[in-house]
Amino acid sequence: MADPETQLELRQISRSFDRRRVVDELSLTLNAGEVTCLLGPSGCGKSTTLRIAAGVDQQDAGAVYVAGGCVSDATHHLPPEKRGIGLMFQDFALFPHLDVAQNVGFGLTGDKNVKAARVRRMLERVGMQKFASAYPHQLSGGEQQRVALARALAPSPKVLLMDEPFSGLDNRLRDAVRDSTLDMLREEGTAVLLVTHEPEEAMRMADQIALMRRGRIVQVGAPYNIYHAPVDRKAAEFFSDVNVISGRVDGALTNTPFGAFLTPGMENGTEVEIVIRPQHLKIDFDRAGRGPNPTQQEGSPARGVVERARFVGHNSLVEFAMDYEDVLMHVLVPGVFLPKPGTPLWLSVRRDRCFVFACPAP
């Protein structure tokens, strides 16, 4: 029996096109009042998954449940309008020949006065009541987005599916609209499945992130957990730039420019990758010219020579050629720091901020 808080469940969903598996035995659960971001690169199967949940496409195998009831499996398939699911896409899809109030009321059934009251309430919730008689072409992108949200929520859906809904907005407008949208969705208690390919958006919006790759969900978790405990190198790379040091396990240790790293549980001879984000490397100015002086937390410092440096907004990105097997390391330094090429400096790294993964099989 499904948890009463579970509003959408995908069980072992698979879908193929032209013999290519686009969604591969995918399972996912959404609870009331939570935002789940389906995150991954283009072509990984995110939008197909959303279309299957909506009912506009049908899976080849598996089942879809809404509020504990099966809406699609091998024997039956409910159409989108009978699933109690709201849809909101990046183009907003407002009807150009209907005014704002008519757009929001489209699809509502029942008493005319009740419908009109619901439309007024939803427009008030999104701050668009004074635009009730306006037409979509008279609205800005942010205003259209708010109308689309009001229309999607007007029937009180248990689940709202959103496909890159903020991608058409400029950066300044996007943050404000996105935050107000999330506040409203959580107040309504709606379970939200939102598709995005932008890690920053997923980190900002989600209660949980489902990271997709090649039709499968490879990791599910809260944003903090999925960022600080990636399942593999590719998961770490998806959220930020990384430095990678390759090595081989010898006696539960792997040698690096920063000394030996513990690699417990890995057999001797295992090829490993040690992944370090650029912001977790530190330039040790106090140690310049004095050589290494290891600490337990940072391990051995390593000498590198500046290859290039550039300012990238709030930070500077400095590339070092290390004195170790032609390893290159990128360091993110707050503010403006642009040392000349050829400058030698010492680097240290927080061991607790590094990830060690066995190399995938070829």
TrEMBL record:
Residues 8-239 form the ABC transporter domain. It holds the Pfam family ABC_tran. Keywords: ATP-binding, Cell inner membrane, Cell membrane, Ion transport, Iron, Iron transport, Membrane, Nucleotide-binding, Translocase, Transport. Signal peptide: none annotated. Gene3D superfamilies: P-loop containing nucleotide triphosphate hydrolases. PROSITE patterns: ABC_TRANSPORTER_1, ABC_TRANSPORTER_2. It comes from the Bacteria. The keyword Cell cycle does not apply. InterPro entries: AAA+_ATPase (IPR003593), ABC_SmlMolc_Importer (IPR050093), ABC_transporter-like_ATP-bd (IPR003439), ABC_transporter-like_CS (IPR017871), ABC_transpr_FbpC (IPR015853), Mo/tungstate-bd_C_term_dom (IPR008995), P-loop_NTPase (IPR027417), Transp-assoc_OB_typ2 (IPR013611). This is Spermidine/putrescine ABC transporter ATPase. It comes from Amylibacter marinus.
